[in-house]
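Think of the structure tokens as a kind of shorthand, similar to the way a musician reads notation: each symbol stands for something richer, in this case the local conformation of the backbone. In the example below we present two proteins back to back. Begin with the first one, reading the sequence and then the tokens, and try to describe in your own words what changes along the chain.
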Amino acid sequence: MSGKDMEEKFPRALWVRLFVYVVVGHLFAAFIYFLFEIAPKK
């Protein structure tokens, strides 16, 4: 399977959306982590 086949199966818009979901998911998880780990210590 060449890069061209991969590009046809997963269009650029799908890769961008997947990247955004991963970034937003990690930011949300970090926010929840800090909310429960850092906030109670203050």
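Once you have a description of the first chain, move to the second and do the same.
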Amino acid sequence: MATVAERNRSERSGEGIVFRSLQAMLSLQGQVRTLRLAKKHIRSRHAGLHRSVHKGRGMDFAESRMYQPGDDIRSIDWRVTARSGRVHTKVFEEEREKPVLLWVDLRPSMFFATRGRFKSVVAADVASLLLWKTLDDGDRIGGLLQNGEHVEFKPSRSRSAALHFLRELSDMTRGKPVVERSRSDLQASWTRLRRVTQPGSQVFVLSDFRQANPAALRQLAMIAEHSQLTLVAIHDPFEEKLPATSGSLRLTDGKRNLLLNLGLRLWRDRYAKRVEQTAKTLQDFSRSHRIPLVQLSTADSDNERLLKLSRGLR
């Protein structure tokens, strides 16, 4: 029987590779400053710290235009009025809040890696970074955690709510994912995401996008019509390209084993074509709907991941 110390060492050895602890996600607050998230005009009903295309009295000057009946005389632009000879009034941009939603994929396929860390751990790290960045910006953060079922968190600025989100996320990276009932599970979850997304929100979808069929992708396209959507695709190098060897390779999920004969040229060619087509489908979807796509690898270092995020979200 293992001692407590042995169990603790075993626990520590898996942290950051096969699961992510709450303490580690809390420590990611220090990396937030390196992210340069794009600031775009948004629409929302609540006051906050982000600009909106809605015009009114607010923090930032937008433009001057001809005076119209009903305009506040306190907003008259006397300089433009004197120069043009016609009464002009100042128009301001209201600063408004931007709700942020995270959809985090924790289905069975995310619990995989041949290098670096599990895809689920990469997703947890990115979600943590985005969460802390959102709170620093004064916005509300919420999301859905999908592991075959889903756990939903309403957008909130509360730190206690954020900690609850991270605690649940950490537990899911340690726990056994729920096996999907069908390929429609992804479509159903993104349909739910679409229904809870308010117009003007910023939405991040963190996934390996396995089983992202056209019906599921249509849900994301509809979200992008009224919100700022960003896709964060997470892959392992093995999924993108098989090792250059003619030997055999054994894969396991802890219960089942799969023996791959990498020397079969026909099988390797079919695998390569399928990978290429899958990647092209996602890239074409992103391009056609003008949705930013960030590509991350399980083998990325912390600095590489931050650089890709800052470039992709700029």
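Compare your description with these statements about the second chain. The longest helix spans residues 265-288.
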